[in-house]
Specification:
170 residues, mainly beta, 9 strands
Amino acid sequence: MLAYDLQAFKTGQGFHIKSTTTRGGTVENIYLHNIKMDSVRNAFHFTMNWNPAYSNSLLPAGYNYDSVPQHWKTLLQKVDPSSKGIPVFRNIYVSNIKATGITNHIVYCNGISQSPATNFNFTDIDITGAKAGTISNAKDWKFSNVSIKGSDGESLAVEKSENMNIPLTK
């Protein structure tokens, strides 16, 4: 997927990839270029176990399985084997991004240990906002000419990750 020459103003997410451990799927080969953001809640939000209470469907009390619509039955299906429900996020390329006034996280990535967010590449990025953010369960990330400045003074936190080449310019 290629997205370029975009502007985001006062939206919830500048860019959001989400899945859950019951849906699986692969998100790969995403290219984002030449994007401006202003007053967005999170500039980059990647989560592999989004809202588990919502994503893990249960039939509400008082409903009979045989009388609900087919799309409900599809949502109620358990992934078997459960390993098929593990999502994959890889090969994400982000370049030439300018953003100001991010109201929450500049970067928030919550991968999972069975499937880290892999090969994310950020080049020529200049973003200011409330918090630099957190990256967890990731591997093989590369930053080149990236400035991420949170007004809280904290650096971008990286945990449970490997081979992270993410120097930040000051």
